[in-house]
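Today's session is about reading a structure prediction critically. Students often jump straight to the picture, but the first step is always the sequence itself: look for stretches that repeat, for charged clusters, for runs of hydrophobic residues. Only then move on to the predicted structure, which in these notes is written as discrete structure tokens rather than atom positions. Here is the chain we will use throughout the hour.
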Amino acid sequence: MNIAILSGKGGTGKTTISTNLAVMAGGNYIDCDVEEPNGFIFLNPSDLKKEEVKVDYPVINDNNCTLCGDCAKVCQFNALVRTKKNIILFDKLCHSCHACKIVCKYEAISFKKREIGIIEEGKYNNIICKRGILNIGEPMAVPVIKDVLKDLPNGINFIDCAPGTSCNVVNSLSYADGAILVTEPSAFGLHDLNMAVNLVRNFHIPFGVIINKYNPKDNRIQKYCQKENIKILGTINYSRKVAETYSSGKMIIEIEEYKKAFKEIVKNLKEVFPWN
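Below is the predicted structure for this chain, in token form.
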């Protein structure tokens, strides 16, 4: 079973929730926030294996090319431009769709591969930890995300999604059987939670909400969830001690109060999701 953990905005504590929840539930941790994959800071998995992520890019054979420009016309991403002298490639705009080769009548296009990131996999105790890392300067994260998710381990996988509701999150959600939305009791938290709820509902999968940095004096998230008939899986109280703990790269379940909170969340998860 794959459970996506997402937030409408950054800074809600999504990775803190994901890593601690994976350990408490005995599930695997899959980091799909490939532009900033920091879950390994807390888990520090051993026996890391690395694999390159590569994508295709077109190579123009100048001997065959007639500069007809059909390849540039068909490219929806403006990765190819025809000039008077040659065809120019902007490789980081290329989506590896191969349309340029399909329309070329002169067999002037072939493909090579270039690296855009890596996949790392290791172990924390008995759970598998896997993450994608997008190379600095690369604009497209989706190919790395798809490589992270294509061979998921058996059992329960907690998928730590990118923040927001972009195509990176959409691609991660397409592999999910359920979702957890992490939010905070603030105006921005509520606004972006609403966007995340609308996104998840389009996938028709069960989901619930965890309120991080919980303040009992602020009940705006509870009111929203009650109105929308959304299950609140649990709350993580705001405290300086928690901030100091995760800022030093430690798990907050090392604090007994928060260990109990995550145990309650795991119990509630089994009520919301078809747990096996």
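Discussion point for the tutorial: The mean pLDDT is 95.
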